[in-house]
Design goal:
The protein has a single domain, classed as Spore Coat Polysaccharide Biosynthesis Protein SpsA, Chain A (Alpha-Beta Complex). Helix content is 30%, strand content 24%. Strand 7 and strand 8 form a beta hairpin. The strands form 2 sheets. Strands 5-4-1-6-8-7-9 form a 7-stranded mixed β-sheet, sandwiched between helices. A two-stranded antiparallel ribbon has the order 2-3. The protein has 8 helices and 9 strands. The chain is globular. The two termini are 24 Å apart. The chain is an alpha/beta fold and 196 residues long.
Length: 196
């Protein structure tokens, strides 16, 4: 069984507010990433929330996915990843994406999942040769995720394991949006990108 995990627990410090709720093409930014994961070939989908959880749940159509509340969200991305992986611990693998990645493509999720091999502990999408998301973590890594701390997230896991990198050029876009300027600069092609 495969799981899909969208990390969206942060308080948007660099953004200056709840970027999960920031409007992009008529929808909250987080909704784009959740819709893409729901459309991908995964068996279960979870979204991890933390800061402003009640506000996000009211304002964002989470497509009926399982919501995991990370009370330790202030620690950094590792806490969100721990909470999400714990919720999906019965899965054979989990595809991780970011809630501020509105141009995520279901096709990219499918490609990294289909690129799993017995020799790799993780599969990571690349765009123009640059590593990005989504990232597949095999269940063999779940114990190591539980030991992660701070804001490193999955990056700390991928340095000393066998990682398969898979080109996802043309399948959505890797942009993550951290500032209002980046949001303003985002084109109005979100719908095309997430359905490619």
């Amino acid at each position: 069984m495969s799981g899909g995990l969208v990390l969206a627990a942060g308080d948007g410090t660099r953004f200056g507010g709840a970027k999960q709720l920031a409007d992009l093409n008529g929808r909250p930014m987080l909704e784009h990433a959740v819709r893409a994961m729901v459309a991908a070939p995964v068996d279960r989908v979870c979204v991890v929330l933390g800061a402003r959880v009640a506000e996000v749940r009211r304002a964002v159509d989470l497509q009926g996915v399982e919501v995991v509340v990370c009370d330790e969200w202030g620690e950094g991305q590792a806490a969100s990843l721990r909470a999400g992986i714990a919720a999906l611990a019965t899965c054979d693998s989990v595809v991780v994406a970011l809630g501020d990645q509105p141009f995520l493509s279901p096709a990219a999720v499918e490609r990294v999942l289909h690129s799993r091999t017995p020799g790799a502990d993780a599969v990571r999408a690349t765009y123009g040769g640059v590593p990005g998301h989504p990232v597949v973590l095999e269940c063999s890594l779940f114990g190591r995720v539980a030991a992660l701390r701070g804001d490193a997230g999955a990056r700390a896991l991928l340095d000393d394991i066998r990682v398969e990198e898979v080109a996802c050029d043309g399948l959505g876009r890797p942009d993550d949006i951290d500032t209002p300027d980046q949001l303003r600069g985002a084109s109005d092609t979100a719908e095309e990108a997430i359905t490619t």
